[in-house]
Amino acid sequence: NQGLPWTWYTLQKLDLSGNEIQTLDPAVFHCLPNLQVLNLESNKLSNVSQEAVTAWISLTTISLAGNIWDCGAGICPLVAWLRNFRGSKDTTMICSSPKHLQGEKIMEVTRNHGICEENDYFMTETPSPMPELISDATAEPTFAPTSGSPATPPTSTFG
After folding, report:
1. 105 has which bridge partners?
2. pLDDT of residue 90
3. Of all helices (H) and strands (E), which one includes residue 37?
4. Beta-strand relationship, 37-39 and 61-63
5. CA–CA separation, 24 and 49 (whole Å)
6. In CATH, which of 3.40.50.20, 3.80.10.10, 3.40.50.2000, 3.30.420.10 is domain 13-120?
7. Domain segments of the chain: what residues?
8. CB of 45 within 8 A of CB of 70?
9. Backbone phi, psi, residue 15, to 5°
10. What pLDDT shows up at residue 54?
């Protein structure tokens, strides 16, 4: 695992707001299997990959406002995930680009302008239990959870 050198089973809340984060490494979220609250507000995210949203298996709350969202096709994995997410989320995500969509709400733009074709981004795929093999030696491996549904976090007797 190249996300973090350890797994934090007890970490439930992570505030990464205001850190100028531009990309999210999905492997990091595999190291946080019981993460419930994720704050990514006020960073420099323009999109979030399918692999990253697939790794958000235990989230109950997500905050994503204040980023520089690109409302092209690259936003579609995040939009599909948000449409299926039943937890607490902000709906004030605003497009920064392309220019003709600046200032518009992401969820409205993608629905009204047909940017994300619904058939292309269903969240029903079953993750593979084995990491994918990648031929490019410079690419990082991708990891998929072994279960398609969130697991109930174990009761901990630690601090």
Report:
1. 94
2. 83
3. strand 37-39
4. parallel
5. 8
6. 3.80.10.10
7. 13-120
8. no
9. -105, 105
10. 96
In this structure, what DSSP letter does residue 97 have?
Answer: E
Residue 144 to residue 149: CA distance in whole angstroms: 12
How many C-beta atoms surround the C-beta of residue 84 within 10 A? 12
With tokens 């992570």, the residue in question is 14
| Strand segments (E) across 57-128 | 61-63, 69-70, 88-89, 95-97
Give me the amino acid identity at 92. Answer: T
**pLDDT, tens only, 74-108:** 999 999 999 999 999 987 899 999 999 999 999 99
Spatial CA neighbour of 142 closest among 156, 151, 131, 152: 131
The pLDDT value given to residue 118: 58
The secondary structure of the chain in percent helix, strand, coil, rounded to multiples of 5, reads: 20, 10, 65
**Structure tokens that stand for 87 in this block:** 């937890």
**Each residue's pLDDT tens digit, 112-134:** 999 987 544 444 343 333 333 33
Reduced to 3 states, what is the DSSP secondary structure of residue 82? helix
Instruction: Determine phi and psi for 70, rounding to 5 degrees.
Output: -95, 115
Percent of the chain with pLDDT over 90: 64
